Amino acid sequence: MAVPDPRGSSSARQTDEQVATSLYARREKIFPREVHGVFARLRVLGVLGLLGLYYLVPWMRWDGQQAILLDLPARKFHIFSLTLWPQDFIYLAFLLIIAGLTLFFVTALVGRIWCGYACPQTVWTEAFLWIERKVEGDRMKQQKLDALPMNAYKLRIKTTKHLLWLLFSAWTGFTFVGYFTPITELGQRLLVLDLGPWESFWIIFYGFATYGNAGWMREQVCKYMCPYARFQSAMFDKDTLIISYMPGRGEPRGSRKRSADPVALGLGDCIDCTLCVQVCPTGIDIRNGLQYECIACSACIDACDDVMDRMGYAKGLIKYTTEHEMSGGKTHVLRPRIMIYAAILLTIMAVFAYNFSQRSPLGLDVIRDRNRLYRETDNGLIENVYILKILNMDNHAHEYALSVAGIPGLELFADTDSIQVDAGEVMEFPVRLRADEADLEARSSKVVFGLIAADNPELNVREEARFLGPQ
Known about the structure:
42% of the residues lie in helices and 19% in strands. The chain has 471 residues and is an alpha+beta fold. The chain folds into two domains: 1-359, no CATH class; 362-468, Immunoglobulins (Immunoglobulin-like).
């Protein structure tokens, strides 16, 4: 993918030496400047919405229980009125495939908007930055504080910030575990220090992961740890929406008075204020062209638009655009890549929706006894033995009636007429089938077991098996 050079040169990509240098260079701490504008407001709304969902959902109740609870010991996932079981793992696979394809589709269409607005690393980093600014002040104050030798004032400010970060991280870890252990019960046991070892481990682990990633590592996660940053270019094309500096309009850059005429000075619209660099959370200069470190957060757009407003210039020196648009062409939204992604995504979503709509909370597996193909009874009938595995995936116990069909005169024998299965229980139920040899048309005949709930006829399932007899 060709990337425009800030001064109009055809050479746009970083050289191998520059990449190697950036990989092994010592990290310089980034102090992102606070920015205001349309995209900043959208980002704040995204952060508040996503964090609000994360922290509030475990406290929601539905039908007398936690609305979303991934109960691993009981091997069932409660999602509002729906309960999923290990047998429903195929739906998780579907959802993961759909999520991956959606990311490919969105990336090909609008670039790294996921990274800039919805990625957990971005969301929690924004929250930590907000805490940091409230405690240490704006960018200039933070830089001055860091440059000071350690003293009582600096120690107090830094300690306050890190304590708030740790408390926020601990609450994040507690909430995370609250998705797997009923959060009210977890809170009660936490108050009396009666947590189990695994719960304690995951609260501490997830809390320190949040503290380390959002408080200390920040942009390094995006630059060096996130694989998405490395393979995103495979999904980009010349019509993908990117954030770009417009070198044809901005160059040559240079400072000037607000009242000065840039044309008379031989300058472009860029006043070289470097605000676009100061607000960047990954510390890049967008004027150097598109870089893999860019997370498309749009902070540089807001900063530059504000400067253009104050200078009396038109906005859009840095903006969302495409390579085709920058080269004077027209952006094509509907293109083969997008249509292929959309077609595959819609097909898989339709298959998922159909299969999920046909999902039954009643499962039946029929296992024929393989120790003996068949046996002949005293009265000359052919008998096969089966083990029925009945899984009640409903939230209530049910009594079921069993039937079988497929061979004329087929008889069903079981130890009991009542099949009572509790909620979430897997019952093994042995049965015997007998048929007259004269009614068998082949050595292997198809039989169909039917199971129906006595209190809910819509709750039923059918399963095929084979009945073996003499040749």
